Amino acid sequence: MVDNDSQQLGLSGVAHTMLTTMAVRAKETASARALISDPLAVEIIQRLEREQPELLPEPNEATFRGVVARTLVIDEEIATFLAAHPQGRVINLGAGLDTRPWRLGTSETAWINADLPPVINARRRLLPASQRVTDIAVDLCQPQWADQIPLSDAPTLILLEGLLMFLPEGCVNQLWQTIAARFPGATVVADLLSDLAVGKSQFAASVHKQGVQFTWGVATGKNVSELHPEFTWLHETNLADKFHLITPPHLLEDLPGLRRMSNNIATFTITSSSALA
Q1: Which label site among 101, 124, 200, 256 has the fewest CB atoms less than 10 Å from its CB?
Q2: How do residues 73-83 score in pLDDT, each as one tens digit?
Q3: pTM, rounded to two decimals
Q4: Class of domain 60-276
């Protein structure tokens, strides 16, 4: 799966953080508990361990717990969407090395993964090709990215995972506006960093090591709807609500504090601006 040019992946900064996510999914898959099943992640991480161990991060307990919980919640949201719309499409913005097309997709589901050119290069080197999967190299802070995604009448889910917290506020606002204008009627599942965690990447060692800082967050998904009324808030899950599956309960004594600092996974539907008028 991993080719001999893996040393040329050229990942640094935010792009390198996707290896942390994959390493966590691989570790959880290989554990006796196995809350996640991601054999592709296991295969890729094992190959990189043999060939380029220096590339691999060492996520701390908080990062491990957060990535597992986030994966579980988002998997549930996408599975629910695909059960209702097996012929729908999933657009993953800031896709990293996401493997859900092979883990969750049906034979009728189309997947579009958009990310920076070095990330898309890594996807093409490390993940198998599929006629159902399209990878697009874009800068999501430039609104022209949306022009590269074909218009479609198919039910659409847009995923924003591990992305918004690394973007400047102006870029985040522009991204919400571009999504609303381009994809009316779509479902949006967004990974939202707590506003209390902005500027505190030192608590996520594998992120901080890359010289990356958390730059954007909100207290709740309802704040997004207040700022961008086209996004109708449906529901959200705080990742701390899943921590009991991952961490022994006696280590979660300050659950209220953990909840306030933890990410929310919020689900929205997009209402056209004309309907809001």
Answers
A1: 256
A2: 999 999 999 99
A3: 0.91
A4: alpha beta
